[in-house]
Write a structure and sequence with these properties.
single chain; 6 helices; alpha/beta; 9-stranded mixed sheet; 9 strands; DHBP synthase; 187 residues
Length: 187
């Protein structure tokens, strides 16, 4: 039986890892605020391609305010009008598990709140957008950008969701500073 969006959202709320197929290939996703799930997800970091980092997948540009502390005005247009996968790295993330920033002492701001970089990508896939809407928040992912799942992933996931396109696209990756300065990491 194929799991429904509701089933997948429930598994994520329980702290389970899910394999996600979308326009960029396979990723592994978890609840971004569940410390245990994030810690387990980060064990897969060595499987990511170079220049890629854990990424929050969002449904629409309005969700940027949930994960980025200081958003340049141009960010909304970049995210909304991207016709191809685009990952934007922002200087100050928020509302994510502190596990993401635990290795960087400089990533803690006043009051002990994490302020490290956060990569965000708006999904272009309608099914993934519905999943995010059902879940109620973005999805933290380890982008594998592959058409197959490595054996190490198979042992950690509880379910698969989505379908691969005929030709997955590697997302462009850019860094967007608070002042609006743009630097491409991968074109």
């Amino acid at each position: 039986m194929t799991p429904t969006i509701r089933d997948i959202a429930y598994q994520l709320r329980l702290g389970k890892l899910i394999a996600l197929a979308d326009e960029t290939g396979w990723s592994v996703i978890a609840d971004p605020i569940n410390d245990a799930a994030v810690e387990q997800l980060l064990t897969l970091q060595p499987l990511m391609p170079t220049s890629v980092q854990p990424t929050v997948i969002i449904q629409n540009p309005d969700q940027l305010v949930l994960y980025v502390a200081k958003i340049p005005d141009v960010a909304y247009d970049l995210v909304e009008f991207a016709e191809n996968p685009l990952t934007v790295v922002y200087e100050q993330g928020k509302n994510l598990s502190a596990i993401l920033w635990k290795t960087s002492e400089t990533a803690v701001g006043a009051g002990g709140a994490p302020t490290g970089e956060v990569a965000v990508r708006r999904s272009l896939n309608a099914e993934v957008q519905r999943l995010i809407g059902s879940f109620g928040r973005g999805l933290l992912s380890i982008p594998l950008e592959s058409i197959t799942l490595p054996p190490a992933v198979e042992t950690l996931i509880v379910e698969r969701f989505g379908s691969l396109p005929g030709m997955p696209k590697r997302p462009r990756i850019m860094k967007l500073a608070v002042n609006g300065e743009i630097n491409f990491i991968r074109k």
